[in-house]
Structures are given as structure tokens and as C-alpha cells.
Amino acid sequence: MTKRLATIKEVCAYAKMGQTRLYEKIHAGIVIAYKHDHKTLIDLDSVDAMLANELVPWPGNSRN
Fold this sequence. Notes:
Layout: E1 5-7, H1 8-15, H2 19-27, E2 33-36, E3 39-43, H3 44-54
Antiparallel strand pairs: 1-3, 2-3
């Protein structure tokens, strides 16, 4: 199975967050990171899972 990996800069743009917050998520074990040739690569599936867990519905979006 091929992993979807991206650089720190790419993930920050993708997830709309800064590097400090991303590194906090990595150190907390929420986002999975790998080292390859002195570069940090982030597992995009773990980023997607983090974003899905942090999403909060907009109050006006309630359905009856």
C-alpha cells in the first residue's frame, strides 16, 4: 500500500495551519511523520483524520 506523503510546507498549506501547530500535532502523536533523506514527510491520511476529528458543524447548518 502506498502512503500519501507531503512536506511540512505542503501540509501547512493543505491543512491551513502553521508549522508550530503542525509540530505540536506531530509531537502529540495525532499526525504521523517520517524522516527520509533528512526531510520530514507527513502522512496525509493522518492529517485528514485529524481534520475530520476537529471539525465542528456551523450552528446555522442544523437540519430538522
